[in-house]
Structure formats: structure tokens, C-alpha cells
Amino acid sequence: MSHCRALEIPAALDQALLLQTKLDSARKNDAHLAFSRVRNPMTHPELNHSHFPDLYYAAISYAKINKLVGDNFQLSQTHTSRHVYLIDRYIKKVAAAELGEMTHEIREKFARLWYPVSSRRQQSSDSEEDEREPPWRRVRRY
């Protein structure tokens, strides 16, 4: 999910940072973190996806759109994302400019996640003008 545009949504970004913090803490406390759920399924409940609903929804939606999981993949019953519409639009790369310019604080959060940040968010591609060829390539009609 390192290049998923849905991370630009503040709720998903904050949840990604929280997950990273909890994961780092769990790695320090448990040397066998990778196998902890095999030994005991109830270990590390703080890493459960139900604590990160927007991030979970963004990851699954991104995977579905990019064909990383099958179309029949079902979200868990505990899914309660509050930003479904915005996440869907971001993943489809339709509404990049809806949140406005990035603040310095958001850029710092991206840096902590090693997320590549462009200087400006791309504009929405809803209009037909964006899909047409540039003016110098258009055929002149007399």
C-alpha cells in the first residue's frame, strides 16, 4: 500500500501511523512476532484490522481495483469505515484535489511512512478536456 493515494486521506494516514507505532512496539516486545498468531491466535489484539477501519478498507479496495485479490473477496463483518466514498474516489484517482494543498504536518507524516510525496496534488480528471489530446496535437478542422 506504499503508493496508494488513499493514504492522502487524513483518517487513513493517521491510522497507518498508529499501526506502524503499534507494530514497532509489538516487534520490540515479541521476538517471534511473525509466528505469534500461529502459537496463540489471541496474541497482539492491538494489531487487529478492526482498530484501523479506514486503512483496512483502503487496502482492500486498492487490492480489488488493481486485481491483487479476486472480485469475490468479502470485507469482514466488523468493517466500519467512515470515509468509504472519499477512499473509493482516491483509489480510482478521480478526486486528488478535494483535500487541497498538503500541510507541513501531513508531509512529515508521509515521511515517517516512507511515502513518496509530490510537490502538488494532481487535479481531478473528471473533465473531458483532460482526456483529449493537447492543443498542438489536435487536428485542425476547416
UniProtKB/TrEMBL annotation:
Superkingdom of the source species: Eukaryota
Record-given protein name: (apollo) hypothetical protein
Chain spans, region Disordered: 121-142
Biological source species: Parnassius apollo
